[in-house]
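Need tokens for this chain, all 57 residues.
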Amino acid sequence: MGVYSGKPWLGAYKLGSFQLPSTMGPYPEVPLFSFLDDTAKRYPQRPACLYLGRKIT
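Here are the structure tokens for all 57 residues:
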């Protein structure tokens, strides 16, 4: 039994009146960078990051 076995933070995962699922699994066995690459290919015109009013494309 691990330190975070109760996962108390899951109670705070809400989006308005919707409760978010505790997991999105099952997860595909692909490297993390492939998610970033695929998303950049799908949405090439969208900014990669918005931070303090600045946009990184």
